[in-house]
Sequence to fold (329 residues):
Amino acid sequence: MRLRMNVEDLGQIRLGWPRMCELPVSVQALQQAGHPYQRLWRSGRAVFPRQSRRLLELVPAHGDVPLFLAPEMVDDIDEAIEIVLSTPASRIRAELDAGRGSTRWSSWIDDLSRGRVKALHELGTAIRTYHDQVMAPLRLVHTRVVAAELSRRYHQLAAEGIAAMLNDLHPSIRWRSASLEVAAGPTCADVDLSGRGLQVMPSVWPRPGVALGWGQPTLVYPIPHAIWLAEANARYDGAVAALGVTRAAVLQALVEAHTTTSLASAVSISLSSASAHAAALRRAGLVASRRDGKAVVHYLTPLGLEVLTASRQPGSDRLAMAVRRRGEA
Fold:
């Protein structure tokens, strides 16, 4: 795909990250073994929510994601769901048909493409559950990763110029002779932006792409693995330094709620050790527990999630020391 850009377009290149449009592409990333977003999710021993499995019918492991699932410039989940569910059935049908190939539609997708209320309700439930159970626990780390990448690109843009930044985004993206060439799959197109400008967006999406269906033409490129490693590993290493290896592993496992028995199995420690570590983390305010019948269920508090995902910012060392003192009390 070739994007022809004039001087006015070059003056309107901007970096951005509309968070909710990452929801469907993150579903694709979770289906790709070895993707850093999937590894981050797996580190919490997470299970894909049953109520969100409809998304797996809509979003392929490879290829294009239906654009109606990615509302433009939206950061609020309620607004995103409202926009998705108000999509005309004709657009839903056209986008799903374009990505279907020879695959046969399920009866649910057929109902969705016809705009039937029950199918739309199930889609809304799938999106909300996925957001709450998959995206929300990873939000702080994900935001830090994106912030680090955007900061790097802003610095590069100021120091080296537009051409250098565009040529460094991905091997499949090249700036040549007033045109931006993107090897974004089988689609071939020659598009004149005609002064509309271009939004450049780092993403969990595993390959470059161009969204021309949005009001603002957008170049999407994958966040480099090195940024993921530097940011995500720093989060976990900070917890290890503050809590110790085993207790940090317990904290990480509790991204998903566990009984004492399942926690012991997840971290490969004894039942008594799991109970003791959960109690220590509870005293530190990082974990909360509730009784469910005869079992006790442990889960992260907001502070516990923050400790797992806190960035290297002023004051973080003091937080680590405070957690260590409270956790060992």
User: Anything to note?
Assistant: The longest helix spans residues 117-160. Confidence is low (pLDDT under 50) at residues 311-329. The chain has 15 helices and eleven strands. Residues 2-223 form one domain.
